[in-house]
Design a protein that fits this description.
Layout (H helix, E strand, L loop, with lengths): L1 H19 L5 E4 L4 E5 L5 E6 L2 E5 L7 H8 L7 E5 L5 H4 L2 H6 L3 E5 H14 L10 E3 L2 E5 L4 E7 L7 E6 L4 E3 L20 H14 L5 E3 L8 H23 L4 H6 L5 H4 L10 H13 L1
Parallel strand pairs: 4-5, 5-6, 6-7, 11-12
Antiparallel strand pairs: 1-2, 2-3, 3-4, 8-9, 9-10, 10-11
Length: 289
């Protein structure tokens, strides 16, 4: 009992200190007018245009002031448009703050529905945090120097994911349909699935070319080769686990079978938010649905 108490207090201490840890906001230029912003939470895409700043995702609410201050190093113009790649709080937490600055929030229609449902569960609707323009399968935005296309990919990380492609700048933001060099988090309770996740990567590879710069939801800026390696990992592990299911193996035996992910564990894929055991469990549960 004493050991459990000490463990519990240690976890609380780690979590509390992680929240207090100073977050550094960094901006990396990808082209003359497109940037990648990293801090804490999902990677942000930034496009400087004649109307102001267009950003993809906005991390946590508590970071909004830091993010806005950092964005001033790109342009004195305000954030006028925000598009959310999906509904999770580390990508949408700053929506209300951005809306208060005058930004219009866009997202796939399921993003608004899920955000609204979660807010209702908590007892109040924060209307300014919700997307005011939603779309189903896709969206096209035209600027003087850029054409932006948003593609809905079905049941991948969630049921509301979009890929956002800058046609002239040749930059693709994949949201959490891509965790570069890491096992992905697939939100099965919110419409995510391993098969949809694989299709999202296949869709992205149809859009890009060898020179495309890819902004993942989490991880470092990526290339087509990085995405191809990620897709190979998804397929190999999925096929291995499907064979185990077909042979009648139980969930417990599959989750404990380290050989199913060993080659990618050795490459460090399990060092992120999702460890190897969680990856095997998620793929198994997705496949038997």
């Amino acid at each position: 009992m004493k050991k459990l108490l000490i463990l519990g207090l240690s976890i609380i201490w780690i979590h509390t200190n992680a929240q207090k840890k100073e977050v550094t906001i960094q901006i990396d230029p990808l082209s003359d007018n497109i940037y990648m912003l990293t801090g804490q939470g999902g990677n942000i895409g930034v496009f400087k245009n004649e109307k102001g700043l267009f950003i993809i995702d906005d991390q946590f609410a508590r970071l909004s002031d830091k993010i806005l201050t950092k964005l001033k190093t790109i342009s004195d113009q305000p954030v006028t448009m925000v598009i959310n790649t999906h509904f999770h709080g580390d990508h949408t937490g700053g929506n209300e703050n951005m809306a208060n600055q005058g930004a219009t929030i866009f997202a796939q229609k399921n993003v608004r529905s899920r955000m609204e449902s979660r807010q209702k569960e908590k007892g109040s609707i924060i209307s300014k945090s919700l997307p005011v323009i939603t779309f189903d399968e896709g969206l096209q935005l035209y600027f003087e120097k850029e054409n932006i296309r948003a593609f809905h990919v079905h049941n991948a990380h969630t049921d509301g994911d979009v890929l956002i492609y800058f046609a002239n700048g040749n930059v693709l933001h994949m949201g959490d349909t891509f965790f570069n060099g890491r096992y992905p988090y697939i939100d099965l309770k919110s419409g995510g699935s391993i098969k949809g996740y694989i299709k999202a990567s296949e869709k992205a590879l149809m859009i890009i070319n060898d020179d495309t710069k890819i902004i993942p939801g989490h991880g470092k800026l990526a290339t087509k080769k990085d995405l191809e390696s990620f897709l190979a990992m998804l397929k190999e592990i999925t096929n291995a686990i499907q064979k185990e299911i077909d042979s009648g193996k139980s969930e417990d035996s599959i989750v404990k079978n380290t050989t199913l992910t060993a080659s990618y564990d050795a490459k460090g894929f399990g060092s992120g938010y999702i460890n190897p055991e969680q990856m095997r469990k998620t793929v198994y549960q997705s496949l038997i649905k």
